[in-house]
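Exam review. A common question shows you a sequence with its structure tokens and asks you to describe the fold in words. Practice with the pair below. Do the first one on your own.
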Amino acid sequence: MYKEQLNLTSPEPPVQLHQEASWVQFHLGINRHSLYPRSSPIVSKLLRDMRDFPTISADYSQDEKALLGACDCSQIVKPSGVHLKLVLRFSDFGKAMFKPMRQQRDEETPEDFFYFIDFQRHNAEIAAFHLDRILDFRRVPPTVGRLVNITKEILEVTRNEILQSVFFVSPASNVCFFAKCPYMCKTEYAVCGNPHLLEGSLSAFLPSLNLAPRLSVPNPWIRSYSLAGREEWEVNPLYCATVKQLYPHGSSDRLLNIIDMAIFDFLTGNMDRHHYEMFTRFGDDGFLIHLDNARGFGRHSHDEVSILAPLFQCCRIKRKTLLHLQLLAQAEYRLSDVMRESLLEDPLSPVLTEPHLLALDRRLQTVLRTVQDCIEAHGEQSVVADGPVGQWAPDSSRANATS
């Protein structure tokens, strides 16, 4: 099967698949609560392997391949050539999603940009993984930064002729490439190395859908993806009552998991959460996978409070989540400090600018004030939901909080 996936045509022996490979062990460690255990040496090894292992193939992701085939372009409001991601496969047969650098760290999203035309930022993917781990959600796939030689590690190893055809050398003698699609793809949307090296994020792939089927579910608080439109939740403050009547939000942890996701997205500033995915094997109470975080950390100077609509409209939060947020609001475990310390591990450090780190503290206070307003209005017993006993307890050391 993996010979076929590699599209091997040479008589040379294929790369060997080893059960002890970090990506295999990562897949085996997924459970009904999270993508990886809290203290998992496998995650650290997987991050090192994605950072260091040679690439043996490169290809477009399934999204780009779909655009190359049948595409209802009337439903696409963004120039898709701006958004580019590739699947890189490594010498241990693991693979990762590569998102190249599109913006400098200190560039903010222009205030007139709609969220659905914003750039996808590689450093936002990296920072989202670290924040998700600090919040003890562990629902973002392991993600690491890497300086990629796009000539040797993409162009020379790809077997996709279309991908090969979009590489060119710029007037500044830098090697560049852009997304190939049936409309509005221009060289000015290209990403360029310096002259061959380019920063990017690498996110570990989840198990194949054949092995671990997943559901893709529309977010009940989805935003309008038209230039002038509003969804019901934006005009109806009682919208949560409607959501609770829809299966399975009224009889499972699904709604509480959506609120967790909204808090996470508010902290990162990500407005583009139109769907979420979950493993079918774990049923209705399984965790939501926090995928596609590249539109976070766009504007440190603005807090988009509407992202918190699931929290302030439903006035519910897991006790586990609330305790962890309260811990990270204390001076000894200040979220910005823990985040700064965690991001030092990444090869592309500094991943976030100081204003983005400080914005996390400000937004955390907004979340806690929102919860307190709910408690004052409805009582703690109605607002704070107790989860399974023993899932989490505050640790007394910074090292445990960071991990």
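Now try the second one, then compare your answer with the model answer below.
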Amino acid sequence: MRYCSTRGGVHGWGFRDVLFSGYAPDGGMFMPETIPIVSPATLRSWSSLSYQQLVTEVCSLFIPEDLIPKHDLEALISSALSKFSVPDAVRMVRLKNSLSVLELFHGETLAFKDLSMMCTAHFLEYFLHKEDRRATILVGTSGDTGSSAISSTSGLSRVDVVVVFPRGRITMVQERQMTTHLEDNVHVFAADGSSDDIDVVMRKLFADQELVKCHGLMSLNSVNWSRILVQLVTFLYAYMQLSGVQETEGDELAELEVVVPTGGAGSITAGCIVKQMGVPLRVVAMVNCNDIMHRTVQSGDFSMADSVKQTLAPAIDIQDPYNMERIFWMLSGKDGALVKKMMEQFQMIHRLSLPERLHKEISSALSSGSVSDEGIIEIMVKCWEENQYLVCPHTAVGVWHHYHCPIRPGENRCCLATASPAKFAGAVLKAGLTLDLPEAVRALETKETRFKDLEQGDNWEATLREHMEAVRSARQRGELFYSLAKAS
């Protein structure tokens, strides 16, 4: 299994090199050069596997055994998923009116990203230990990615993690899950701007190959292929649970619709890859009023709005769903030259009208919808009244589709629950509902915090460069960076 860039300038990379990268050197994103096909017989053989076993089987398709032997891979994944609060790390909940919800939020930070982040961090640690080297993880976050990246890497002796979040645009729980980590290898910045503003700086830093090499710079955003890889399992697990695949024969396979609350489009990318692997899925991308994904699917208008609107579902308040580049590449027939031209135009003027043929492919592969804050509240209340089941505002964005587009008899559907409602007490209160906060969440209110501000008008790129260099220098001297900072 080899990897290439979506912009055509990089080919033949191995999993280890892709893991330790962010964006590809040509500015693109890494994808497998070939996508393995999973036969109906293999799907049936997987139908009795646990989630953890399925992660191992899927990852082994994309990680050669000479890089990570399968027995090591099994151990890494077992360790990564050992601290989740439900036995199999995820849980399928079946509610009234044929509503099936796959809960993906049982990790430490109560968000779906913990699943892929913990596995990726364990892959990272495996190679760092083997090669006796360090890495710096640089993450821009719209809310949950940053806390999950910190949780999965805090305290690791060979890693520094630098996280930038949009100040005032995420919930207090999301913010404190980042700022209350005081380990010496954790570095948090609060930027006075949107997550899309932060992504611009991230791209510039990762495009500097000298900087990447000097700091061992890598990403744990869903820019990192390993994150997407583990997210493939979400769709396969849902398929095993709900499609009745074990009861089919020959090449006959039932279809499953998976409804996905969508921000950076990492999960949607994973769903499209699983479809290309031969699994009969219908993928529905649901967004809030930041609706660039919806407009792209409906009319081919991949253009940013004038501003990112703040909503009750802040983790998907995104107008630059960067993983769409991977989907463009897949559905254009792996046309790197076309993708390069399109994405360079988009990065320059933030507007793009998709070629007619590509738009046709995307609208065939995906369905979409957009939900207002009023719609989010409606669904949170409806779910509670019908099932005494509380959903977070992001999950409500997906479940809205279930209630407004009912499934027909014989059809199968799964809605992904991406975060715990405990992270969004304000939205729960606005819906007129009550919530018992877990002790770990209540404890965040009284913990000490540490972070640095990035103000409008500051040179964020330069500040981050200077900070990373100061940390690197301290590490080379064998000193603790924050101990030095406090002493000075």
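Model answer, second protein: Residues 3 and 17 are 9 Å apart (CA to CA). DSSP finds 21 helices and 13 strands in the chain. Full marks require stating both points clearly.
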